[in-house]
Amino acid sequence: MKCKIDEQRILVIDRFMPSMWILCTILLLFATSETNSNITNMDSKAFSSAIAHFSSKFCVELEKGKSVVSSPLSAEYLLALLALGTTDRAHEELLTSLGFPDDDSIRSSFLEASTKLKSISGVTFNVANKVYLPEGAYDLQEEIKNDAIKVFDAGIEKLDFSNGAAAADTINKWVEGKTNNRIKDLLSADSLDISTRIVLVNALYFKGTWKKQFDPIHTRNLPFHITSNSTVDVPMMYKEDDYRYGDSEELKAQLLEIPYVGDEASMLIVLPHDIEGLEDVLAKLAGGYDLMAEYDNMYSTKVQVTLPKFKIETEIDLGVVLRKLGIQAIFNRGGSGITKMLNTNEELYVSKAVQKAFIEVNEEGAEAAAATAMKALRLRESFGIEFICNQPILVMISHIRKKMHMPIIIATYKGDCNEDYW
């Protein structure tokens, strides 16, 4: 089973003008018409916990009632860079929401993360960051420029934003190239203009092959519970093998880990005991429940796995989601706090934030992240445990190293998005 993940975020910063711009894990920054310390080391476990907690809070705010896929990590790359360019309330909101104590912990953590993510064994995983600036004298302030290049490994390019269509086409082609052509048309032709000051883009791509692949001969259409009273037939894969498994009374859910080739990435599936229990699980995780502690209690055993085969594509208005997470000041046209980005006196603000993501899960692996789950039943001991994902579930693809999990993609699958498999 192969897993591919494609995500893109853009931040656009513009001047204070009536028009709107896009942040897709683009951030569009516009300009208004108004005018080093010792590094704090945040250990890998604390960093992973911060990302996992932010991911859970992020996921619970996404659209209910349908399958979604997202990469909070992709959003965090841009928000962390933006945090280094803000002051006052905006700076406090970003640090609090992301779970970092100070700027230096961001620098040390993302520098280490970027290095580790480049070397995940057995899978294809690419993270790319890009900063687009207007042609002419505009440039990043020296400190943020140094952070963008050295900490986030970001490329910097100047574009003629007055030709919005051409600039958007350039950015979209860069995104397509970084996501294996899975994410297209991230920016519309009218999303950029002469007021645009900065476009921050993060593109993420993951493709992995299951260490133990599912045999297509066992795939067949079976009922999937959308709710307690409603079902739909979806293609279900099947495999019996040894997997890491757990059953959490606190979460009221079963957990299963399916590793990818190389053993440095895996998919963690959270299957609620109740058919309609997924929202309760998400709310508990968003409230700070430590999913990684549950992972530490999992054990290897024989499991009969039934898992949906699916594709999910999602476009997320990050402006809505981030405000719900307490990140609000950066969207203000006055007093945004984005004062340490450009080498000008122009005050910047984020006009809009958008993320596009894609995932496919099949017999070979997965592409992005999404899932469905159902209560697992126990068979006779000689047959092991039955783990049947025939109801809404949570799926998380993570980088694993020394029992540390860094969430890359998080998704929920609710029985839709299967038309391509009929």
Automatic annotation (TrEMBL):
GO cellular component: extracellular space
GO molecular function terms attached to this record: serine-type endopeptidase inhibitor activity
UniProt record similarity statement: Belongs to the serpin family.
Residue span(s) of domain Serpin: 52-403
Protein's name according to its UniProt entry: Antichymotrypsin-2-like isoform X1
Nuclease is among the record's keywords: no
Keyword Transmembrane helix part of the UniProt annotation: no
